[in-house]
Amino acid sequence: MFETPFSVVGTVITDPVPRRVGDQDFTRFRVASNSRRRTAEGSWEPGNSLYLTVNCWGRVAEGVTGALFKGDPVVVVGHIYTNEYDDKEGNRRSSIEVRATSVGPDLSRCRIKIDPTRRAPEPAAASESGAAEGPEEADEHTRNSGELPISA
Predict the structure, then answer these.
(1) Residue boundaries of the structural domains of the chain
(2) What angle do CA 80, 83, 89 make, to 5 degrees?
(3) How far apart are CA 115 and CA 68, in angstroms?
(4) Basic and acidic residues composition bias: which ranges (predicted)?
């Protein structure tokens, strides 16, 4: 299959819906990417909008589930394709979809706090370096700052 690399900056317009397909996690949601342009008078007017379905599999699906919600600003990277299908009346339809390889918050439009829940250092590595820096020290500067929690 020919895969076209694609990235889009937009807003989540449907809550992500997780489910299992066979033995894999799958999550689907929709994104709107809106443009605007400057008029000759210097004011801004809305431009075109792109609406697409984002399909996440495996670890990407796990990361999206419970972390993203309707209204969140996101950056989606993946491969774009057209999904063709017949609707209930038998009419041929198509939709633009992305199989996401990476999904994250758009940091130009929100603030986040990375969840310090990560792999613990191996005991040998912690004893060699003396005292390992714990999550309390690592995110001291972001505590109580009103940032959104995002799992790494």
Answers:
(1) 4-110, 111-152
(2) 155
(3) 14
(4) 111-121
Rounded CA separation 129/20 (Å)? 42
Tens-digit pLDDT profile for residues 81-122: 999 999 999 999 999 999 999 999 999 999 988 776 655 555
Q: Which of 16-30, 91-105, 122-136 has the lowest mean pLDDT?
A: 122-136
The answer to whether the beta carbons of residues 110 and 75 sit under 8 Å apart is: no
What would the pLDDT profile of 51-91 be if each residue is shown by its tens digit? 999 999 999 999 999 899 999 999 999 999 999 999 999 99
In angstroms, the CA 33 to CA 52 distance is: 9
- Three-state DSSP state, 86: strand
Among residues 56, 50, 96, the alpha carbon closest in space to that of 78 is found at: 56
Q: Quick one: which of 80, 76, 92, 94 has its CA closest to 29? A: 76
HSE-CB of 92 using CA atoms within 13 angstroms = 2
HEC per residue, 24-76: EEEEEEEEEEEEEEECCCCCEEEEEEEEEEEEEEHHHHHHHCCCCCCCCEEEE
Architecture of domain 4-110: Beta Barrel (2.40)
